[in-house]
Structures are given as structure tokens and as C-alpha cells.
Write a structure and sequence with these properties.
This protein is of the alpha/beta class and 315 residues long. The strands form three sheets. The chain has a seven-stranded mixed beta sheet, sandwiched between helices. The chain has a five-stranded parallel beta sheet with strand order 1-4-5-6-7, with helices on both faces. Helix 1 packs across helix 8 and helix 4 packs across helix 5. The longest helix is centred in the first third of the chain and has 17 residues. It is globular.
């Protein structure tokens, strides 16, 4: 492991330190600051020649700042003769812009993939992509992990009885089915109509939720509008309690207020994105994926299989 090195930008330094703790290595010393006019300043403070370098940097809010930090870090490491550079992006920003769903719109998820490749990334490690086909946008290897094992273990420890797993829309059925299988629970689906990119209206519940504990599962929560509408519909359909398990807590806009005022009893998210506890504390529990990412980093470095870490989502 003496050839491995982990560095981090400003997006989620705590997660980077937690990963280093599990690996038993120290976080590499880098300067990631700003010049007086706002340009990003990067300097690698250690020798990286011939090393296998992993950059821990989710492209969460502020998305463009964190993305540029990642790209500049990759360029700096490439010019410093690192042997391989792996971009560890626990949350992949711009993933929702993965297709042309309207006239004259970009496919920004593909643009970001091109930027990472051209900057010098040799591999990408990410988690719970909004759409799995984004892996095909890259011309370099992509290891796509899922938080399902971490979340399921926590839910099992809560010892719910009469549990039902709910997909908030038709597109999330595959994920919900995987959770239901692991939890030995029934499956239900919220039939919703999207009014705008940030807002949707729950229409019907497909499946039985009456007198059950419902757990809504999804890959990300942004403003929380769709999630709160789904919880309201599930509660109205007779569910005893409503929980939500979401991998990426984007929590933008009035998300914290929406969730605090909603029918959701508890929201489980992971630490792929740092949570601002001063703004969002009520009803939110954070689960760590540091150990999972650390194991993936170790296996990639040792050229071992990572597929066993993917969980049941591949089935």
C-alpha cells in the first residue's frame, strides 16, 4: 500500500479522512484554494511520481466549483507523473441530464464524462448513479457501487414488522425490488405525474400499503417535493408509518423545511454529500459509506475484483 495516495478537494473532506482511516493511510497534502479573483488554485504538496492516486471529490453543491476542483486536481496529478489517477466521485453531479428529453437541450452527463477523461482520469469510482447507462458515457473503466448493503443493514436493525418497500416512480422499480428482496418485504409503486423538473404530483399507489410500515427508496432527494408528495399519498392510503432511504441527500432549496413538515418519520441518507446540520437536522439520519468506498479503493489498487461489492442491484 506504499504506492497508494488519497487526496481530496473541498467537497467532502470528512468522507476522505474516514476512507483513509479504514485504509490505514494518511490523506495526501494538497493545496486547494482560490486566487483573489476567484480562480481555483491547486498545488500538490507531496511527491506523487509513480503513485496510484485516488481523488475523493463528489460533485455536489456548489457543483461547478467542486467539478472544476476535481478537473484541476486531475490535471495537476497527471503533470506530476502519477502512474494512475482514479476519480472517486461518490455523488456524480449533472447525472439527471443524461438524455435529450426536450428539444435543444444538452446531455451534460456525457459532457462531464468527456471532461474527466480529457483531464487525465484513468478510472472512475462512483455510487448509485441516477441512470446506470451513464457508465457508457465513459471511455475509461467505471466501478459503479451501490449503497444498498449499508442502508439495508440499518433498516434490519430497526426491526420493522409488516414492512413494504415503495418506489417513488416507475423508473425506480429495479432499485425498490432489490431492497424488497433483501428485506423480505412487499413492493409498492407510486404512480406520479411530473409537473416540472422539481415538482410532481402523486396520483395512485400500486400495491398494498395499508397498516404497513412503508420505506420509500430512491437514489437522490433534491428539493424533496416529489418525496413528500409520495409520503403524503402513502399515508393517505393507510400506511402506519412512512420512512425514506435515499442515497444522495442533495437537499436543495426548501428541502429541509419540506421534509420536517412532511409525513416522513425519518429520512436515511448517506454521507456521499456532506449534510449541513445547522440547516437540516430534524428527521435526518446519516449513514456512512466510507468503509464501502475504502474497500473498493483497496481492491482497485491491488487489481482485485470489485464486483462482489455491487450488492443485489446487479441481479
Amino acid at each position: 500500500m506504499n504506492k497508494i495516495m488519497l487526496v481530496s478537494g473541498n467537497a467532502n473532506p470528512k468522507l476522505a479522512k474516514d476512507i483513509c482511516k479504514f485504509l490505514g493511510v494518511k490523506l495526501g497534502e494538497v493545496l486547494v484554494g482560490r486566487f483573489s479573483e476567484g480562480e481555483i488554485r491547486v498545488q500538490i504538496k507531496e511527491n506523487v511520481r509513480g503513485k496510484d492516486v485516488f481523488i475523493i471529490q463528489p460533485t455536489c453543491s456548489p457543483v461547478n466549483e467542486n467539478l472544476m476542483e476535481l478537473l484541476i486536481l486531475i490535471d495537476a496529478l497527471r503533470r506530476a507523473s502519477a502512474s494512475r489517477i482514479t476519480a472517486v466521485i461518490p455523488y456524480y453531479g449533472y447525472a439527471r441530464q443524461d438524455r435529450k428529453d426536450q428539444p435543444r437541450v444538452p446531455i451534460t452527463a456525457k459532457l462531464v464524462a468527456n471532461l474527466l477523461y480529457n483531464a487525465g482520469a484513468g478510472r472512475v469510482l462512483t455510487m448509485d448513479l441516477h441512470a446506470g447507462q451513464i457508465q457508457g458515457f465513459f471511455d475509461i473503466p467505471v466501478d459503479h457501487l451501490f449503497a444498498i448493503n449499508v442502508v439495508v443493514d440499518h433498516i434490519l436493525n430497526m426491526k420493522f414488522k409488516n414492512l413494504v418497500v415503495v418506489s417513488p416512480d416507475v423508473g425506480g422499480i429495479k432499485m425498490a425490488r432489490a431492497y424488497a428482496k433483501r428485506l423480505s418485504a412487499r413492493l409498492a409503486i407510486v404512480d406520479k405525474r411530473r409537473i416540472s423538473p422539481e415538482k410532481s404530483e402523486a396520483m395512485n399507489i400500486l400495491g398494498e400499503v395499508k397498516d404497513k410500515v412503508a420505506v420509500i427508496v430512491d437514489d437522490l432527494v433534491a428539493t424533496g417535493g416529489s418525496l413528500c408528495e409520495a409520503a403524503k399519498a402513502i399515508k393517505k392510503a393507510g400506511a402506519k408509518e412512512v420512512y425514506a432511504a435515499i442515497t444522495h441527500g442533495v437537499l436543495s432549496g426548501n428541502a429541509c423545511e419540506n421534509i420536517a413538515a412532511s409525513d416522513i418519520k425519518e429520512l436515511l441518507i448517506t454521507d456521499t454529500i456532506p449534510l449541513n446540520r445547522s440547516k437540516c437536522d430534524k428527521k435526518i439520519t446519516v449513514l456512512s459509506v466510507a468503509e464501502l468506498l475504502a474497500e473498493a479503493v483497496k481492491r482497485i489498487h491491488k487489481e482485485e475484483s470489485v464486483s462482489s461489492l455491487f450488492g443485489d442491484m446487479t441481479q
